Amino acid sequence: MATYILVPGADGSAWYWHLVVPELRERGHTVVTVDLPGEDSAGLDAFADAIVAAVHQAAPLPDARIVLVAQSLGGFSAPLICDRVPVDSIVLVNAMVPLPGETAGEWWDNTGQAAGRSAYAEATGRAAGAEFDILTDFFHDVPPEVAKEAMAAPRTGPPAAVFAQPWPLAAWPRVPTRFLQGRDDRFFPLEFQRDVVRERLGIDVETVPGGHLVALSRPRELAAELLKEA
User: Fold this and answer.
1) Phi and psi, residue 210, nearest 5°
2) Can you tell me the distance from the alpha carbon of 157 to that of 153, in angstroms, rounded to the nearest whole number?
3) Residue 144 CB neighbour total at 10 angstroms
4) Pick the CATH number of 2-229 from 3.40.50.1820, 3.20.20.10, 3.40.50.720, 3.30.1490.20
5) What is the pLDDT of residues 109-148, one digit of tens each?
6) In 3D, which of 10, 4, 18, 3 has the Cα closest to residue 69?
7) CB atoms within 10 A of CB 180
8) CA end-to-end span of the chain, whole Å?
9) Residue 82 and residue 177: Cα distance in Å, rounded?
């Protein structure tokens, strides 16, 4: 059996994983989800503390494989726990991959995300350079009832400090890492991510169906990929 630590993206809400959790638990695995701090002063260290606290509260079995899963902005915070929790593998999902000393605020220009998003929009018949729209960019493939529930929740965002704090690790953790990328992600397009991940991690992305919020649009397919780590 495995223990899955599921780290959310920019909204910091454990709810993001609520459709994936039962897919893993019904197969006997332990699942840890966490609501990340929302205070403006909370930085990456506070995020890491919250993740570690959630793991300790869940009390995973000593002999269980620990699989750390990070969505989007979670790519900046999740790896920070690897010197505090005995992580066996990391699975990144549509994630931001940081460089040592890089802030999450700098990542966008450093990687060319805006140009990648614009090029993909134009290639798929949408307006290049259009302003971000949460329904168009994030929820375009999420079932309407799930999108409605998400939009009805109080709007939260990551603390400003998270985008200002340089990524503190000297290198990516020495932990086996996979990268799952939604082939229909409009925010971090597939070809853009292929280049970033190959350059920064030296690995190839594995494509999965779905857009940026794949845990909401294709939870069973995503869970099937995560179960390969058990």
Assistant:
1) 115, 170
2) 12
3) 8
4) 3.40.50.1820
5) 999 999 999 999 999 999 988 999 999 999 999 999 999 9
6) 4
7) 21
8) 6
9) 12
